[in-house]
Amino acid sequence: MKQRKLKKLKWNKKMDSNRVVLSIVFLVLGFMIAFSFRVTKDDGDQGNRLTDRQWEQHISLRNQLIEQEEKNRELQKELNAKQEKVREIETSLSKEAQVFFNMAEDAEKYRMFLGKVKVSGKGVKVTLADGEYDPNEENINNYLVHEQHVFKVINELYISGAAAIAVNGQRIAHNSYILCTGPVITVDGYQHPAPFEITAIGDPEVLSSALNITGGVKDQLVNDQIVFSLEKQSEITMEPLLGN
Question: Which residues form a coiled coil (predicted)?
């Protein structure tokens, strides 16, 4: 009986020891679980804080970018306005430059017409000669070159765009006069015998076409028994007029 009680007592002590061990194990295990959960939670909270910080930085950079874009738009508007002003100034200057260029060009043309400058260029040479003597013709003037014949050629050349004209090498000015005195003509006081060479600087094609047009100056002169010849010239030079 005593031995049985002794065994039971030992068994109880053993069970108590096992409970203590199990309690310690569960305590350690619980502590480890709690510690692991706490660490995991702290890591998660820390990760969330970093993400929030990054998001705040992203928002800040985005706001800065929007602000910078707004400034760029304002600067672009200002630049466009200044460029428009520059274009207006350039247009105004170009118009003024064109006006000055046209004035200079016109002045040069007037100098050429007035015979104030030496000119050279392509053109034509028209030769007017007296017709052949006809014993049956009672009036000799009917086949001689007269001032009206010369005037017809000069006027047609000017109308066709001639820049300068000369008769037998003598420049014609805006106030030139031509008179017929027998077999010669007088240009600004200088006499010239036939044949009369009328040279003109201008587009040879245009000038020759104007003179050769059907029913034009050439046909009229030929009908008046005038010998008419026309040559295109690659280079004609005319000296300026002297004196007043």
Answer: 58-92
